[in-house]
Specification:
The structure is a single chain. The chain has 193 residues and is mainly α. The chain has helices at 7-10, 59-89, 95-135, 140-154, 159-181, 183-191; strands at residues 13-18, 24-26. It has a two-stranded antiparallel sheet with strand order 1-2. A hairpin with a 5-residue loop joins strand 1 (13-18) and strand 2. It is flat, with a radius of gyration of 28 Å.
Length: 193
C-alpha cells in the first residue's frame, strides 16, 4: 500500500469510524451519504407519470409486453407450422437439400406469422390506449371496441366483406376473452349493480 495504511483504508472505509447506525462511514464521495435521508415510509416502487400506480399497470405500460409476447408467439406458431409443411413438402428430398428446404420453410413461416401477430397486437394495443385516453378510464368496453376496430382495420384491404369478417373475428375473440376473465364485472355492468 502506498501510504502504509490498512487494507480497509485502501478500500475507502475509514478505519475506526462508524455512523450512528453502526455502519462504517465511507471516504469515497460516491458512497458517502446519510441513510437518514431515506425515509422508511416511502414507497419502494417508482411509477411513471401518468401510470396507474398501485392499482396496476395501465394500457400503455402493458402495450409493450403485449406486442412482444404476441410477436414471439406468432413466430413460434409460424415456425411449427413451417416445420410441419416442410416435412410434408420435402419427403422426396434427402441430405443437405432437405435440411436447407426445412430451414427455409421454418424461417419464412415463422417470420411471416410473427410479423402478422406483431402488427395485429400493435394495432390492438394502440387503439386500446387511444380509447382509454379518450374515454378517461379503461374497462371491458375499450377491450371489445379495440378488438373489433383492429379486426376491421387489419382486413380493410380485403374489401367490405373481408373487413366485416375481420371485425367479427376481433369482436368474437375479445368478447370471449372478456367473458373468460371478467365474468363478475360484465355481470355487474349488465345488471347495473
Amino acid at each position: 500500500m502506498a501510504s502504509g495504511g490498512s487494507k480497509a483504508e485502501s478500500l475507502g472505509v475509514a478505519a475506526g469510524q462508524a455512523s450512528g447506525l453502526g455502519t462504517p462511514s465511507y471516504s469515497s464521495p460516491y458512497l458517502n451519504f446519510d441513510p437518514a435521508y431515506i425515509t422508511p415510509n416511502d414507497s419502494d416502487y417508482l411509477y411513471l407519470e401518468g401510470s396507474t400506480g398501485d392499482a396496476g399497470r395501465g394500457r400503455f405500460e402493458l402495450m409493450f409486453n403485449t406486442i412482444g409476447g404476441f410477436t414471439a408467439a406468432g413466430g413460434i406458431i409460424g415456425g411449427l407450422n413451417g416445420a410441419y409443411a416442410g416435412l410434408q413438402a420435402t419427403q422426396s428430398l434427402s441430405g443437405s437439400a432437405r435440411r436447407t428446404q426445412m430451414i427455409n420453410f421454418i424461417a419464412k413461416r415463422g417470420a411471416s406469422w410473427g410479423q402478422m401477430c406483431g402488427v395485429v397486437s400493435l394495432m390492438y394495443s394502440g387503439i386500446g390506449t387511444i380509447l382509454t385516453k379518450l374515454r378517461g378510464h379503461d374497462d371491458e368496453l375499450n377491450t371489445v371496441a379495440s378488438g373489433t376496430l383492429t379486426g376491421l382495420l387489419f382486413k380493410s384491404t380485403a374489401g367490405a366483406r373481408g373487413c366485416a369478417k375481420g371485425g367479427l373475428a376481433g369482436l368474437s375473440v375479445t368478447t370471449a376473452y372478456i367473458l373468460f376473465t371478467s365474468k363478475d364485472r360484465v355481470k355487474s355492468m349488465i345488471t347495473g349493480r
